Amino acid sequence: LIHYTDSVWSVAFSPDGRYIVSDSSDKTIQLWDAWTGGQVGNPLQGHTDSVWSVSFSPDGRYIVHIVSGSRDKTIQLWDAQTGGQVGNPLQGHTDSVNSVAFSPDGRHIVSGSHDKTIQLWDAQTGGQVGNPLQGHTDSVPSVSFSPDGRHIVSASWDNTIQLWDSQTGGQMGNPLQGHTGPVQSVSFSPDGRHIVSCSHNHIIRVWDAQ
């Protein structure tokens, strides 16, 4: 699938598998037909800097995308059917937004930022839910909800992984340590029992989430 004039950073399938969404350093987002490979509509435009992360909501109705780089620092909701922006940009981070994910029930969004924090958002109102989750000492490039939505896992360039209670915002136990380089990506297993992470030190690790 060729369209962009700059690097592509993130891609995701829609829940029904019919569409793909992608983002780019050219500040745009594009929908694609997964069966034909053709573009669906015009590029979604509105961000003023590179877009680092995109994700469909569980019901496929919304696309969330995040822009990175200190010039923007926002999250924007888009209507996947019309390509229009839904509400105003979500603002609260003080540096690049690196990663975004919907909760399994679609009611909340979690974001990780270069400002070293994690933020929960109400997907319907766009409002911040609670205070930023603080504990990392470097950029947070990846965040993810557990399959049951009760926990959040974050990866950081401080070489650690942290589990959080999505209801209270509290840290769950001590940071998971084992990587000797910045942790770039993290994800739960489908049953929620394990976490997988990868880092700049060329290592992939699997952790017991319990």
UniProtKB/TrEMBL annotation:
InterPro entries: WD40/YVTN_repeat-like_dom_sf, WD40_PAC1, WD40_repeat_CS, WD40_repeat_dom_sf, WD40_rpt, WD_LIS1/nudF_dynein_reg. Keywords: Repeat, WD repeat. It holds the Pfam family WD40. WD repeats lie at residues 1-33, 44-88, 90-131, 133-174, 176-210. CDD domains: WD40. The keyword Repeat applies. It comes from the Eukaryota. This is Uncharacterized protein. It comes from Scleroderma citrinum Foug A. The lineage of its organism: Eukaryota, Fungi, Dikarya, Basidiomycota, Agaricomycotina.
